[in-house]
Design brief:
Oligomer: single chain
Order of helices and strands: EEEHEHHHHHHHHHHHHHEEEEEH
Largest sheet: 5 strands, antiparallel
Distance between the termini: 56 Å
Radius of gyration: 22 Å
CATH architecture of the largest domain: Orthogonal Bundle
Helix content: 40-55%
CATH class of the largest domain: Mainly Alpha
């Protein structure tokens, strides 16, 4: 292992292999060194850390992300997200998850409405909901991910996207190695990140056409309004408050409300900011069509490379994947399967459970890692729509 003196470390550094202190893991692969961890090393008078990995540079991450853009086919834009996922009616786990998801939405909605009416809301109930959401994601990550692709009612859009942003933020933070306590605070920030919208006129908030520049400037005040609300309530850690204030800030200084650069933005806010952007693209608005997950990812990367923290963006991309877990896909050899796992080094080539080889049923199904598949050119051709998936499953099950 390589010895790295602590004086050579800087907060934000990332290595491609775990970093150790006295045989204990300090950092997992691709996990940035937090300022608090660095200060702890100094306080404990640790001389050096050890790793078999290499220090990664911002440029390397951005090059990898650009490669992903070029690998995503425009043919993927056949269906939008609401056409891809479905829940079987006899799936009791799915039914329970859907009910819990709706409970979280109701809790967030009640919180927002009380703020709008200048009343106090139940912060303990919201904190319990965040804890329960972390448990739900831990219990069934694949099922939790499916929940974000439903179709919200227009009047519940704000609360629906708050919960879904929290789900994705928990998953991304898990990938980055955060502990449960951190996950709960990040979930709270996901729930509350748009609470400042309660101070924006409904005429602007629910306008069907694109906003004018004046209306956009008003809308851009919502992070500051939200921060004021939470500071007044004084019920949550400052880490949660900063998510609300900073989730629209960008590492290059192009965000709002203050134009902060990367070193001024909390890590939590960077995570929630990316997840908020992705969730917004999942749903159709009057001025914008929804897209398939591959094209959402392609659009997000095109727009955000150079703006968002490249490590957080890479970890998010790995978490969600170009082809999300649970989606059914057709390969270039006409085989059909379900995406099971993402591959961090080749994000466009996940691990897939194949149910058919060409047009022939495979029994039992075969699991292949497309990143390691020896057949030249074998890759994902497209994502199946939900009706296609239902028909396919009926066919292979003989129903």
């Amino acid at each position: 292992m390589k010895r790295i003196p602590v004086e050579e470390l800087k907060p934000g550094m990332i290595f491609d292999k775990p970093v150790y202190v006295n045989n204990d893991v300090l950092l997992n692969s691709y996990q940035p060194l937090k300022k608090s961890d660095y200060e702890r090393l100094i306080e404990w008078k640790i001389d050096a850390v050890y790793t078999e990995g290499n220090l990664l540079q911002k440029e390397k991450f951005e090059d990898e992300l650009r490669d992903i853009i070029s690998d995503i086919s425009d043919l993927a834009n056949t269906y939008d997200t609401s056409d891809i996922y479905f829940f079987a009616e006899d799936d009791t786990l799915a039914t329970s998850a859907i009910e819990k998801h709706q409970e979280f939405i109701s809790i967030v909605k009640d919180c927002f409405q009380k703020v709008k009416e200048n009343k106090d809301f139940n912060s303990s109930e919201l904190r319990n909901a965040a804890n329960n959401l972390v448990s739900l994601v831990n219990k069934n990550r694949r099922l939790s991910f499916k929940l974000i692709f439903g179709t919200p009612k227009l009047e519940d859009y704000l609360y629906y996207t708050a919960v879904n942003t929290a789900i994705l933020a928990i998953m991304t933070a898990q990938t980055m190695g955060y502990s449960r306590l951190h996950l709960i605070n990040i979930a709270l920030g996901g729930f509350l990140h748009d609470i400042g919208m309660t101070k924006i006129s409904p005429d602007i908030l629910y306008k069907k056409e694109q906003l004018t520049q004046t209306e956009l400037n008003i809308m851009k005040k919502h992070p500051f309004y939200g921060y004021q609300i939470l500071r007044r309530i004084n019920a949550f850690p400052e880490d949660v408050n900063l998510i609300v204030l900073q989730h629209h800030e960008r590492a290059d200084g192009s965000g709002y409300p203050y134009g902060f650069v990367s070193s001024q933005i909390s890590d939590y806010a960077k995570i929630v900011g990316i997840c908020d952007t992705y969730v917004a693209m999942c749903h159709e608005r009057s001025y914008r069509k929804a897209k398939t997950p591959p094209l959402i990812m392609k659009t997000l990367l095109k727009e955000e490379i150079g703006k968002m923290d490249p490590n957080v963006l890479k970890m998010f991309t790995y978490t969600v994947g170009v082809y999300p877990i649970g989606s059914f896909v057709e390969l270039t050899d006409n085989s059909i399967g379900e995406v099971m796992l993402q591959n961090i080094n080749v994000i466009t080539k996940p691990t897939v459970k194949l149910y058919t080889q060409g047009n022939k049923k495979i029994d039992p199904p075969t699991i292949i890692n497309l990143a390691k598949e020896e057949r030249e050119g074998l890759s994902i051709k497209r994502v199946l729509a939900s009706e296609e998936t239902k028909e396919f499953l009926r066919k292979i099950r003989g129903k």
